[in-house]
Amino acid sequence: QVQLVESGGGLVQAGGSLRLSCQASGSIFSINAVGWYRQAPGKQRELVAAITSGGMTNYADSVKGRFTISRDNAKKTVYLQMNSLKPEDTAVYYCNADILGWSSKNYWGQGTQVTVSS
Description:
The chain is mainly β. It has strands spanning 3-7, 10-13, 18-25, 30-39, 46-51, 57-59, 67-72, 77-82, 91-100, 104-108, 112-117. Helices cover 0% and strands 58% of the residues. Strands 2, 4, 5, 6, 9, 10 and 11 form a 7-stranded mixed β-sheet that branches. The mean pLDDT is 96.
């Protein structure tokens, strides 16, 4: 059973930093593309950052220059370094990954809350 578990969320002041982690476990041969999404109450879930198996990254315009996505394949973990946080970054952040086990499937984590106070 493959699982994704996010961690690292919390309450921070505007301008502060957090590092989110998404760790995969289970029967995994490889982790392909991974994305961090976020969803604020009453809003649509949006893609924040993504990273391919080859390390290519993409970011939402709203977080460019502030957030950095990275991965450690040996640890089966993807990170989202969040700097210069703004109140509008407040949301539940979800990890999404395409994982090859016995077959290729897409998985979601349960999310971690990030709250940025002004």
